[in-house]
Design a protein that fits this description.
Blueprint (H helix, E strand, L loop, with lengths): L7 E6 L5 H11 L1 E4 L21 H15 L5 H13 L3 H17 L2 E6 L5 H7 L6 E6 L11 E2 L1 E3 L12 H9 L1 E3 L7 E6 L5 E4 L5 E6 L5 H12 L6 E7 L6 E5 L3
Parallel strand pairs: 6-7, 10-11
Antiparallel strand pairs: 1-4, 2-9, 3-8, 4-10, 5-8, 11-12
């Protein structure tokens, strides 16, 4: 995040079916779930694709680099012999497919947690909060905030990123594929925390960083009571707010919740 004053990030949730218990755990136990990229709803999201115009000679040089990196025990003569043997049956298309598959496996083994920079987008409320019947969580996320301060913005572009197998490092490639989406998704204003170490799964966040919960404009009163009860046990206060439909415009108004 940038350090121009306090910043916050939002996460939309709903209480339908099995998701009710997951939402409750966020509020009572300060637990958030990092998902596997392969589970995302956008089939283009986090998919590996390399620039197809790489020449055969360039791919050969990349192969030499890989042999040198992953077989450092070989001396110069052994390296030359290994490379010469491999290149006799070198298939550029197969090599590129193997590189693509390997990087895709690496990406699919990571954990990703998504947020939005806005709590007033009517599409986000519709898609991720079950038609405005769910909630929107508000988290502190400055540059200096643990956990949420690790979030990075997603870049939205009209075409797939121009990733070069040869000039971009594996880390640069992974970052590009994880933090780039089709421009159609720009309305989400998404930020992501990427867990490279532990991958997908549940992780506990500092309790004091959840500072607000906004009720959807069509939320059931009984669900509001349940949410209020769940957050009442937290050690740090959580501001409850209510979203309502704007008057005369396609917008949302958010005000303090009054039971």
């Amino acid at each position: 995040m940038t350090s121009e004053g306090p910043k916050v990030l939002y996460r939309y949730r709903h209480l339908q079916g099995e998701y009710r218990e997951w939402t409750k755990r966020i509020l009572t136990d300060s637990v958030l779930h990092f998902a596997r990229p392969s589970a995302f709803n956008d089939p283009f999201d986090c998919k590996v694709h390399f620039r197809p115009s790489v020449s055969r000679e360039e791919l050969k040089r990349k192969h030499v680099d890989l042999v040198r990196r992953y077989m450092p025990e070989l001396n110069r003569a052994q390296l030359r012999a290994k490379v010469a043997s491999d290149l006799k049956s070198f298939d550029p298309e197969k090599f590129l497919a193997q590189m693509t598959s390997g990087l895709q496996d690496a990406i699919d083994g990571l954990g990703v947690l998504s947020f939005s920079a806005t709590d007033r987008n009517i599409l986000l409320w519709s898609h991720y909060a079950a038609g405005h019947t769910g909630i929107c969580l508000k988290f502190v996320a400055t540059d200096y905030t643990p956990f949420f301060g690790l979030a990075q913005p997603v870049d939205y572009i009209p075409d797939c990123p121009e990733i070069d197998l040869l000039s971009h490092t594996p880390d640069q490639q992974i970052q590009a594929f994880l933090l780039t989406k089709a421009i159609d998704w720009k309305y989400e204003e998404e930020w992501r925390i990427i867990d490279h170490d532990e991958g997908a799964g549940n992780k506990v966040f500092p309790e004091e960083l959840l500072v607000g919960v906004t009720f959807g404009a069509r939320m059931d009163p009984e669900d509001k009571e349940a949410i209020a009860e769940w957050v009442s046990g937290r050690k740090t206060p959580v501001q409850l707010s209510q979203a309502s439909l704007g008057s005369g415009s396609f917008s949302l108004e958010i005000e303090p919740y009054e039971p």
